[in-house]
Amino acid sequence: MTAKLISGIEIAKEIREELTAEVAELKEKHSIVPGLVTILVGEDPASQSYVAAKNKTAHALGIHSEQVTLDPETSEEDLVKLVGKYNNDPKVNGILVQLPLPKHINEANILLAIDPNKDVDGFHPVNVGKMVLGEQCFLPCTPHGILEMLTRSGVETSGAEVVIIGRSNIVGKPIANLMLQKRDAGNATVTLCHTRTKDMAAHCRRADIIIAAVGVPKMVTADMVKKGAAIIDVGVNRIGKASNGKAILAGDVDFDAVKEIASCITPVPGGVGPMTITMLMKNTVQAAKMAAGLV
Fold it and tell me: Which phi and psi (to 5°) does residue 73 adopt?
């Protein structure tokens, strides 16, 4: 048995088509144009690439997007003032400060400065708290994307044994919390594994769904996977360079071996990655509707 491929590219395309129609309707019926501002401090190449991709996607969907690039020596005080400016700008529904920030800036202080109603990344403590309580809020983009992938691929989560490998604040902890809640793509029994977990393989072999988000290439091997399990691979690891100079990427799962055992699996690249920016856009549209009192 070879696993069905869960294509993040295809699912993201489907959601973006839905968002394009929704944005067009907001413009036509309510004269509302969702607005997103991205703030980049410094010249980190990876961050520049991410921000460019976010702005390109926003424009393609009809979302008004602004990019602000600041000098790497920008002070924390000045960055907080800039965030405050956009907090008070009615044309801006979503504010995204690209992480990581230079070491002299406290990331927690910057995230705290963003208006929770414009926190489309879902990182503000208010939104994190609401997520834990199961209240309406902006969900962090990568976990939100995973939920969409599971739902749209027909993977049953209710009553399922789910093993999550990795306890980061960005992926591991939030997806664990979301999957145990009474919600779509929830109602699961969740085990959260990490670097101090004893006999991780034994936990994985019980799992109906494995979500790997640990940043170790091919850590999940075929002998750790139960036949017919669903595999979500969040890892993107650079393991070398091709002859054309492009990076060779591998996930946290040994894809070639595990695909012969699993019922469905996400590829790397082309799996979870495309979903993250798409869910950022979904949050931005939601923020615009909230600001207008439409939800």
Answer: -90, 5
pTM: 0.94
Catalytic-role residue among 121, 233, 252, 254: 121
Tell me the pLDDT band of 13, cut-offs 50, 70 and 90: very high
Q: Render pLDDT for 221-263 as a digit per residue (tens, 0 to 9).
A: 999 999 999 999 999 988 888 888 788 889 999 999 999 999 9
Annotated catalytic residue, options 4, 13, 71, 98: 98
Residues 4, 13, 29, 54: which is the catalytic one?
54
Q: Which domains does the chain have, with CATH numbers?
A: 31-117 (3.40.50.10860), 141-273 (3.40.50.720)
Structure tokens given for 83: 């965030």
Whether omega before 274 lies within 30 degrees of 0, making that bond cis, reads no
Give the span between the Cα atoms of 9 and 27, in whole angstroms: 27
Active site residue 121: yes
pLDDT at 224: 98
Who's near 119: CB < 8 A, 6+ residues apart? 94, 95, 111, 126, 127, 138
Q: Is 54 a catalytic residue?
A: yes
Element housing 12 (H / E): helix 8-30
Identify whether 48 is a catalytic site residue. Answer: no
Residue 143 · residue 175 · CB < 8 Å: yes
In the prediction, which pLDDT does 88 show?
98
Measured between alpha carbons, how far is 189 from 273 in angstroms, rounded to an integer?
A: 25
Alpha-carbon distances, residue 198 vs 194, 229, 279 (angstroms)? 9, 21, 34
Q: Does the pLDDT at position 18 exceed 80?
A: yes
Whether residue 175 contacts residue 167, with contact meaning beta carbons closer than 8 Å, is answered with no
